[in-house]
Amino acid sequence: MPQSSQPLDLGPAASRRGFLAHAASLGAAAAIGTAFMPRPLAAEELTSAEWDAVHRDPTTPAEALKQLEDGNRRFVAGRPIAPHRDMARLKAIAPRQSPFAAFLGCADSRVPIEIVFDQGFGDVFVSRIAGNIAVAEQIASLEFGTAVLGAKVLYVLGHSACGAVSATMNGTEVPGQISALYFHIRPATRGAGGNLDKAIAANVREQALRLRDGSTVISKLVKEEKLIVAGGVYDLNTGAVTPVALDAA
Questions:
Q1: Buried-state track 153-191, b at ≥16 Cβ within 10 A, e below 16
Q2: What is the pTM of this model?
């Protein structure tokens, strides 16, 4: 005898019991999830230094770089402030943006730069591309972010286990135009001796120097001490950003 494809009608009481059980299971799952999620600190929980980090814009390149480093330390420690992430902030900056930092980052979905550095709306001007490579369009965007919008630090952010760098090292055959990335990453892989982590750091250095020394707009800002160009590698497992010395051999 063929089975009916219609769901059984167990009556209103059973339906209510099922709904309540389902709601209870969802509530338990949410409680477990939030137990492991760092919540933003409330105003009364902040130290005076943390309060300043929320309410005071950096005035020098050194202060801007420190603000980023402090934000990443908060993120790693599970003490994010999550500043400037409400509608009031969004409305305040709607007429004009003035980010204190600009970033060249990888397009990887696991590297949300505002979250990694504990910043919010209008704080950072971000240009993202696979392999965090400094090509013409990215350079133009970052010249705008620094020379026009006034960012005081220009940061190149790579990350561990970068697929673009790994594929370049291995010469992996890829579809479409993905291999166009290889040309820009190849110089960083030549001296890495097959070490992916070394190649990732070298690629950060290569792209940062291309920005700092290759763009007349950016190099002028650096010479005038209006801008710092910096770089680092974000660890996908720990959340920590390790600085990369740009002038190291």
A1: bbbbbbbbebebbebbbeeeeeeeeeeebbebbeebbee
A2: 0.81
